[in-house]
Predict the structure.
Amino acid sequence: MSRVPVAILISGSGSNMAALVADMEDRAHPARPCVVISNRPEVAGLARAARAGVPAVALDHRAFPDRAGFEAALDRELDRAGAEIICLAGFMRVLTPDFVTRREGRILNIHPSILPLFPGLDTHARVLAAGMAVHGATVHEVTPELDCGPIRGQAVIPVLPGDTPATLAKRLLPAEHRLYPAVLRRFAAGDRTPLALFP
Ligand code: GAR
């Protein structure tokens, strides 16, 4: 069985990337990690990927004059690695409609809210400000409109008395680490049914 090559794009600590890579250590997984790329050369996630035996590439977006230049270099790295699926895992650069359209249906993102509620940034603070009783994460396909593509899985957690944005973010991460690998397994096998995970 040939396994689908997956590229993982990060901008931070890469805990979701690590969860995806760990799950793909199972030889029966329909996908395998082919490269981890970070637009921030200094992040811990790159060393983490290298330690896990995955080629790790730093592609500093500040070294390019514009988005198109950065994305052309990104395209080259993805092609070189033979990536067929791209997982955005805490990747904090907006991709242009041109880039996304060329790879539509093959890019997944994890977003820290129950979409379509709270697209964009600062989701944990906005969930608290709205008085929500639940919070969660969504894995969705990436389309040109930010945080709007077809939902492929969601995990929910309770909001507890005394929660702060920091405690909510911390409690959500383990749910993200269960959700993203589970969705990628189904997605790589061609299953587009949305997955629901409860605490
Ligand atoms: C995760 O909580 C992820 O949902 C969020 O960034 C964090 C990355 O953590 N993503 C976004 O906010 C995307 N807009 P990680 O680097 O430890 O995986």
Summary: Strands lie at 4-10, 31-38, 56-58, 85-88, 107-111, 134-141, 151-158, 195-197. The mean pLDDT is 97.
